Amino acid sequence: MSALTFPPLRVTDPAEFGRVAVLLGGSSSEREVSLDSGRNVLEALQSRGVDAFAVDGIPALARALAAGGIDRVFNILHGHNGGGEDGIVQGLMDAFGVPYTGSDVLGSALSMDKIRTKQVWLSLDLPTPQYRKVDASTVHALAAELGLPVVVKPANEGSSVGISRVTDDAGLDEAVALAARYDGQLLMEQMVVGDELTVAILGDVALPSIRIVPKGQWYDYNAKYIAEDTQYLCPGLDGDAEDEIRRIALAAFRAAGCRGWGRVDVMRDRASGRFFLLEVNTAPGMTSHSLVPKAARQAGIGFEELVWRVLEQTLEASHA
Question: For this structure, is 51 an active site residue?
Fold first, then answer.
């Protein structure tokens, strides 16, 4: 993969952005993370002179759009069911003709559904763990079919919400009960034992990978957002392996119909060295623990510039 090159900033005058709504919070299971991300984004924009203000959730955004006075939206609303990653808020903004950051309706809706995303990837021979759709009555048979260990998770959640790693048959029922607390289908996939990595996408560029080394056994919600002892190695790989993971991540991002910016999560099998795509995040976290800012910093882009570059993408053709 070619060396990282970024175009010069398209604008330097913050007034060209007009009034910018930073969409945060909402009512999804990821509300608290989104509030944290949104505060950081808002502060970064305001520090550079952008006329930015916070809007909490989709109903508030609908009212603000109807009232007028919003020129563009920085969407940092995480998750679905009141979050900003499932295509619903994108449709709302399209209806008002207001440009917004990140993926459009299709890319957002598809990538929020892990099952359909995997179907697209498999159709294009992009590597992802074998999987099955499950319910309580089929879980044991499907686990035997895939072979333990497996991962059980909701097909439409993020931030490691509702996920269980199951190493024996006895743990399957509890894993399904946990995942079933959340709306939508349940997904079981073969567990890849190895390194957990992620690749941030900014425009048409895959940023340096990050290898995640939690102190505990798994990179769970606590390790992502609370613990201070998780290690993040960036770049996570070197040489041909680094080039390959970035190539696969960018291909996976595009295949899911995504654009603008996001993050692709990948596992690397310890025994074979093969990569397996897990999911795409279309409005990834921008907290102090978040991974996109870490990767951007490795590529020479500070947080404020990262936020500016993401917002600049709304100056292109309208998302309509």
Answer: no
Q: Is 263 known to be catalytic?
A: yes
Residue 253 in contact with residue 262, Cβ under 8 Å? yes
DSSP state string for 182-220: SSS-EEEEEPPPEEEEEEEEETTEEPPPEEEE-SSSS--
How many CA atoms does the CB half-sphere of 43 hold within 13 Å? 9
Known active-site residue 27: no
Q: Parallel, antiparallel, or unpaired for β 210-213 and 231-233?
A: antiparallel
pLDDT, tens only, 47-87: 999 999 999 999 999 999 999 999 999 999 998 888 899 99
Reply yes or no on whether 265 is catalytic. Answer: yes
Which one of 164, 265, 268, 309 is the catalytic residue? Answer: 265
pTM of the model: 0.90
Q: What is the pLDDT of residues 197-252, one digit of tens each?
A: 999 999 999 999 999 998 766 555 555 556 567 889 999 999 999 999 999 999 99
Residue 12 CA to chain centroid, in angstroms?
A: 28
Please name which of 256, 251, 310 lies closest in space to residue 280, comparing C-alpha atoms: 256
